[in-house]
Every structure is written in C-alpha cells, then in structure tokens.
Amino acid sequence: MDIPQLTIPLPVLSRQRCQDTALGKPREVFRLPTGLTTYDNRLCASIHFTSPTWVTLSDGTGRLYLIGTGERGNSASEKWEIMFNEELGNPFIIIHSISLLKAEEHSVATLLLRIEREELDMKGSGFCVSLEWVTISKKNEGEKYEITKHDVLHGKSVPHYAAIESDGNGLMIVSYKSFTFVQVGQDLEESGDENMSEKIKEPLYYWQQTEDDLTVTIRLPDDSTKEDIQVQFLPDHVNIVLKGQRFLEGNLYSSIDHESSTWIIKENNSLEISLIKKNEGLTWPELVVGDKQGEFIRDSAQCAAIAERLMHLTSEELNPNPDKEKPPCNAQELEECDIFFEESSSLCRFDGSTLKTTHVVNLGSNQYLFSVIVDPKEMPCFCLRHDVDALLWQPRSGRQDDMWEHIATFNALGYVQASKRDKKFFACAPNYSYAALCECLRRVFIYRQPTPMSTVLYNRKEGRQVGQVAKQQVASLETNDPILGFQATNERLFVLTTKNLFLIKVNTEN
Questions:
Q1: Please, is 505 exposed, middle or buried when counting C-beta atoms within 10 Å of its C-beta (0-12, 13-18, 19+)?
Q2: Exposure pattern of 265-291 as b/e (b: 16+ CB <10 Å)?
Q3: Long-range contacts of 331-338 (CB under 8 A, 24+ apart)
C-alpha cells in the first residue's frame, strides 16, 4: 500500500493565524505552593482530570491534592478549591483516578505510581515499582474528605497500562512482570526487605498449565529417595512433605481431580507433579492461594493459541469486518524494523474487595502501543499490535465472561509505527478516524483511516481497482523545544512543548 507523505507547516498558537488553530487568553485557576524547588528528589507535577468537576494533583514531592473545579468550561467558574491534601511519603505520579457517588457518599479513587531504589536487589534493576490505590471519601455534608482505603501493589516493571474500573470494584494492569498486593497496614519498608530477600533466592518450585492440567516441578536434594517424599492430593488442597519437613501446603486456586493427579521422580533428580483440572479451560493466576514461592513458566503454545484467536481481527484488506467469514490474513514478511525484543506481557484484573487476581491474559507477542479515553464513562482503552495492524480494546468491567471488547482496527499501523525509532507519544481520535504519534522533537505523524477515492486508481501488481486509500501526513513544528505532552480529539491534535502549545486541525468536516 502506497502511503503518500505531506508536510504541514504549523503556526505557533500565540500568532493566532486562523480561527481553527487559535486559543483565547489563558486564565489562571490554580497555583502550586511556592518553595517546592527546595526538594532534592522532586518529580514533575502530575494531574488527572477525574470528572467534569474534580481533579487530582501531585506536586511531585509526595503530597496528594483533591481539588474541586466546578463545571469546567464555564467561563464564569471560580478558581479551583483544594478539598483535601496530605503528605503520602516519597514522590509519586498520578496515573488514573475516578469519581464515585454511592448512597450520598462521595469518593475519589486514585492510582499512584512510585519507583523506589532497593539496595538488596542484587540481580534485578535495583528498583521496586509500587502502585498505590488510594480512596478519599466524604460520607456526610459538612465533613472533611479523608483517606478511607490505601492498598499497595509491588512489581518489578513499570506498567504499560493501569486503571481503576469505572464502578470502583476492580483494577486492571498490563505489565511485563506481574504485580501483587502487599499486606495493608504493615511496615512497607520492612516488608519490602523481607520480600526482596526471598526474591534473591531461587524459586521453591516452577509450574506450568494447559487448559486441562498443571505441572509442578520441584528440585530435590541430591540424596533424596522415594521414601523421603509424601504427596497428598485433595479436591481443593495439596500437601507436599520432603524428609519430614513441610515443603508446600495450601488451598489450590481451583478444584482438581485428586484421584487422577499423579507424581513422579524424574532422572534429573526433580519431582514432577501432574494436577488434573476439574474446570477445564480455566486459567489459574496462582497455584496455591497466597503462595509466592513458585514461578509460573509461560507456555509458547498457549501464546500461539491466543494469537490464533485474534487473527480474525486483522486482515490485508482495508477496514475488515471481523464478523465476515474469511480465512486469516497472510501477513507479509516482516522487515527488521518490525522486530521488538520485549518479552510477553500480561493483562491482569484484581478484585477491589478481596485484592486477589480474578483474570489473567497472556498477551504473548502482541506489543502494547498506547491507551486512550474513548468514552469518559468507561475505563481507558488500550491498543495492541497484532501482526501488521493495531487493535483497540475496551475493558468492560461489568462483563465477567467477556471483559475486553475489540472496538477498532487501525490497518497497517503496527507496521508503519515500527520504523519510528524516536517516537515519544502515541494517541488516536475517540471516533477512530485517525491515529497519531510524535517524536521527541518537531515531527508529528498522522495516520488516517482508509477513505473512498474520488478518482479511479488501480493496483499495479494485481490490476484491481482500489476504492479506498489510507494516508499518512507529517507535521513539522516551528520549534526545537522538546515535546512534553500529546493529546488527540476528533478534530484536533494538541502538542505541548516547553514554551508553546501547538494546535493542529486534523479533520475539517466536523
């Protein structure tokens, strides 16, 4: 597919060359307290627009603000008012927040991200990633807002995507390495040291799973014999004893056929346990409930099966219909720029009440691209690369059996974005009419969805008539300042640099 390029010279907004790309005079609504520059490890301030009348804000020093804004967009609205602010420890950034009103009680749930150094981490990066789910509530009129819930998750990689469900009942995370809740109320610094000392050790066991069974592998001491091993299977429980010492005991995540489950000593001096699932097809997020001593090994065949299920959503044709019966696409041979070396990520859903994992989806080699808010009443969508295309997924927290809905396909976007080595931000229009990405400096790339052609075109290789063509446009900013922010609407792109806010008119039909 030939994609023509067009460079668009852009005006700096202060010049106001045309009505479509002009902004009015800015009006101050809030100012951070002075003196914040005295903090040595201060982060950049971060803000999240929680609802049309509420905002959550971090000043970069470790203090969280809840601000009432009134109905934003009303020129007569007053300045923003601080309704809550509290010091929460080390600096953090805000990555998501929602506003909830239940039985006259108003709550704002926020998701905070911290990255802290771990001195005991000798094998990893030396840092620990924390996600903190903080809920601020006011029960009755006249009372003050206060923290009513504070739960913490730990992980070893920064999440690609993390968002609280719109009803506040759960949390979804896309990450390279899994997250787990730590015990609420305990000394987090002390628990971090204990957890880290355990992570430095080798896992106690390894486990894999298929749709029908699970396999657990345990390394045995060199002088172990069959008489040293005792394994007891119950429908919902397992008990393993080695040389009179309890090795692993606890409730299984789901039921097993205990009479058909077996164990055997392998030639490499390891104990292999086979557990037959009672509920075939159910994916277990953990083997023994609450046990963190094992390591889950992902099966490449499962990754391939997931990719096969998604294949019908991509096609070499433009704007494919997922419901139309047709064979899977024959993806063209990938070039060197298409290869990405990140290992597989997972999508996990955590229950807000039990803090347990309820759903785990292995994304395999489907590279995470970006997230976008399509419907303010729903969770943010996330976009994954699948073969040469990009698929947009909408989480649906109310659907227990079908929680992620495919809502749009960006043809060939996965292919064309792979060659952009300096890309910094990625976004798409809420109506899916275009996707856009920007580099660190100057250039913005706009990829429009296929549209009908006014003239007759023919494919030179196949001789067939081409009815629709996708377009790529390149906008070059009149500045060399770094790009700090990037936001897409159906009609316009907003690009923020250190000194200017640029506005690009993308769609003129609206």
A1: middle
A2: eeeeeebebebbbeeeeeebbbbbeee
A3: 331/387, 331/388, 332/388, 334/388, 337/418, 337/419, 338/388, 338/414, 338/415, 338/418
**Domains of the chain and any CATH numbers:** 1-28+421-510 (no CATH), 31-200+346-364 (no CATH), 205-292 (2.60.40.790)
Q: What is the pTM of this model?
A: 0.66
Residue type at 163?
A: A
Burial label, 208 (beta-carbon count in 10 A; 0-12, 13-18, 19+) = middle
Pairing outcome for strands 492-497 and 501-505: antiparallel
pLDDT of 453: 57
Dihedral of CA 431/321/369/94: which sign?
positive
Half-sphere exposure of 206 (CA within 13 A, CB side): 10
Q: What 3-state class would DSSP assign to 18?
A: coil
DSSP state of 42: P
Angstrom distances, CA of residue 396 to CA of 80, 371, 424:
32, 15, 28
Q: What is the DSSP letter of 413?
A: H
pLDDT under 70 in the chain at which residues? 1-22, 35-40, 74-77, 119-125, 183-202, 298-344, 400-401, 451-470, 508-510
Token pair recorded at residue 347:
């999508």
Calculate ∠ Cα 312-314-315, nearest 5°. 100
CA atoms in the 13 A half-sphere facing the CB of 510: 11
What pLDDT score does 178 carry? 83
Give residue 417's pLDDT: 83
| Dist. CA 503–CA 510, nearest whole Å | 16
Question: Mind listing the pLDDT tens digit for each residue in 228-281?
Answer: 899 999 999 999 998 888 888 889 999 999 899 999 888 778 889 999 998 888
Query: What is the 3 state secondary structure string of 183-243?
Result: CCCCCHHHHHHHHHHHHHCCCCEEEEECCCEEEEEEECCCCCCHHHEEEEEECCEEEEEEC
Beta sheet of 368-372, edge-to-edge order: 368-372, 381-386, 389-395, 404-410
**HSE-up (13 A, CA, CB side) for residue 496:** 6
Residue type (1 letter), 43: L
Beta bridge partners of 409: 391
**Cβ atoms of residues 91 and 43 within 8 Å:** yes
Contacts of 333 (CB under 8 A, 6+ apart): none
First to last CA, the chain: 27
Q: How far is CA 59 from the centre of its chain?
A: 24
The token pair at 241 is 């004893």
Alpha carbon distance 139, 40 (integer Å): 37
Closest by Cα among 102, 51, 52 to 77:
52
